[in-house]
Design brief:
The structure holds two protein chains of two kinds. Chain A is α/β, with parallel strands linked by helices. Helix content of chain A is 38%, strand content 24%. In chain A, a hairpin with a 4-residue loop joins strand 8 (202-206) and strand 9. Chain A is globular and about 50 Å long. Chain A starts with a strand and ends with a helix. Chain B has 13 helices and no strands. In chain B, helix 11 crosses helix 12 (225-250). Classes of the chains: A alpha/beta, B mainly alpha.
């Protein structure tokens, strides 16, 4: 049984449908890239998957022992966070909140988990630093460590490399790739189709035509070909 | 000078003022950090005007225990205002401005039409600037204030980690299954309670100062949520004490003296922050 099954899903705001008839599945260990232009409904789809908003129509079902709240989430940064006075440690451990219920304080096991995930992301030396003083890449690593504290089954990443310079972008992709190798299922929103083709196992293209399939199928599909043509045009323009 | 101070401290109403002042300063600073970070600084101002309007209603109805009307109305408006933060037709800041001036105008209108007092402008002025009301507290009011403050304080400590998570990243918290709506509601209720309490201390116009100044002062110096919260509480309590003592000794209005000291503390924190 698949971890996440999406059937005939339509997403949008206030019954304004942005994308209709989405059908796809995510299995354990997959690396799904959701690509498409700005405004095509990628973020709305993600919010619907996370249950932050209701679907307009259709069904999302979770299987294979995955519960609704066991999806880790790496959101795009908000204005509030950029100057938030908080230590890296405090932010990472806040990922454990989901399993706490009404218990007010963290246990030592949760502190250990936070520490482990900071090591995993290579930011354990920054644990007492202030979040707003970190570089963009370090901030993303901190938020990724927080998401891993929430779950290590499925991670949803919303444009994880936006605003990062090329070198840090490459490192970020490698880090996500490593997590995927360790068995974490990845769902990533991106408009970087190059990276999607390089790392993903499956691709969901949202736009005028909707495509879902494995990476290899995507490359030979119409949507993928369109991309290649655009890419060539781009080369000429450069 | 010390002698005068000792002399004054023999009066129960001065001791009451000190106790209430400290408790309110503590609570407002704790919640202030969250409100400032959530970009809700102005909500304190809006709610204090609502509390003023509610108080006008209570005065007109000639109620002995005005809290019964003021507290529920203010809480209801707090919930309403924090809700508009999400997605509604009227934007959050516009909603706050609307409710706040509306309540202010309505309150003054009511007091004017149904006035029973001979010194209306004096009454209004003392409600708005809290000139002497903290020095006329009764023992029962002090107890009520103390109990509510302690409840607020305990709730804040117990929910500290959750308030942090919800303040830092509401979407993430919601996605991982935290009931963010309930915590936003909790924050709204607590802030309403603090504002109603603080009306006695600084009057309804200056309450936002009590909420905002300590938070932004300590954010200048400290860089972690815990340190910011603790230092905001300390700054706020110290400023309230100093303000009350100065106002007793120099005969200045209590509320504006406290706020002036808070502003001074902010300037000092800015300078200290520059050199760190």
């Amino acid at each position: 049984m698949a971890l996440i099954t999406v059937e005939n899903l339509s997403v949008g705001y206030d019954s304004n449908t942005i994308v209709e008839n989405l059908n796809f599945t995510v299995n354990h260990g997959d690396y799904l890239c959701i690509v498409g232009e700005n405004g095509s409904g990628k973020s709305t789809l993600m919010k619907t998957l996370l249950d932050l908003q209701d679907a307009v129509a259709g069904k999302i079902s979770f299987g294979d022992g995955l519960k609704k709240n066991e999806i880790g989430y790496l959101p795009q940064q908000t204005v509030v966070q950029r100057d938030f006075p908080a230590s890296v440690k405090g932010i990472v451990i806040s990922g454990c909140q989901s399993r706490m219920g009404l218990r007010p304080f963290y246990t030592s096991a949760e502190k250990k988990l936070a520490m482990k995930n900071m090591c995993r992301m290579g930011i354990d030396n920054l644990k007492d630093r202030c979040y707003r003083e970190l570089s963009g890449g370090q901030q993303q690593r901190a938020l990724l460590a927080r998401a891993l504290c929430a779950t290590d089954k499925v991670l949803l990443l919303d444009e994880p490399v936006s605003g990062l310079d090329p070198k840090v972008t490459g490192e970020m992709y490698e880090l996500i790739h490593e997590l995927n190798q360790e068995g974490v299922t990845i769902i990533m929103i991106s408009h970087d189709i190059n990276a999607a083709i390089k790392y993903a196992t499956h691709i969901l293209h949202i736009g005028d035509d909707i495509f879902f399939g494995s990476r290899d199928e995507y490359i030979i599909s119409d949507a993928g070909k369109m991309f290649e043509i655009n890419q060539k045009d781009g080369d000429i323009n450069d | 000078m010390i002698d005068t101070l000792f002399l004054y401290f023999q009066y129960p109403f001065v001791r009451y003022a000190m106790v209430v002042g400290v408790l309110i300063a503590l609570c407002s600073a704790l919640l202030g950090v969250t409100l400032v970070l959530k970009r809700f600084s102005y909500i304190g101002d809006g709610l204090s005007h609502v509390a003023f309007g509610a108080m006008a209603i209570a005065t007109v109805l000639d109620m002995t225990n005005q809290m019964i009307i003021i507290l529920p109305i203010t809480i209801a408006c707090a919930v309403l205002l924090l809700r508009t933060g999400q997605n509604t037709k009227i934007q959050g800041d516009a909603a706050i401005a609307m409710i706040s001036v509306g309540a202010l105008a309505f309150g003054y209108l009511l007091m004017n039409i149904f006035s029973t007092s001979s010194n209306l402008s004096g009454d209004v002025c003392s409600t708005l600037f809290g000139s002497t009301s903290i020095l006329t507290l009764t023992g029962r009011e002090v107890w009520l204030c103390a109990i509510l403050s302690i409840v607020v304080f305990v709730i804040f400590i117990l929910f500290y980690n959750k308030i942090f998570a919800v303040t830092f990243d509401e979407n993430f918290a919601k996605a991982t299954g935290i009931k963010t709506d309930i915590y936003n509601l909790l924050i709204a209720v607590i802030i309403a309670v603090i504002i109603v309490l603080a009306m006695n201390l600084v009057g309804s116009l200056l309450i936002s100062a009590l909420v905002i100044f300590p938070a932004i002062s300590s954010m200048r110096i400290f860089h972690s949520f815990k340190m910011v919260t603790i230092s905001a509480a300390i700054i706020s309590v110290v400023c309230a004490w100093v303000g009350i003592i100065i106002s007793i000794l120099a005969g200045t209005p209590v509320g504006s003296t406290i706020v002036a000291i808070d502003a001074l503390a902010f300037v000092i924190c800015v300078i200290v922050g520059k050199f760190r």
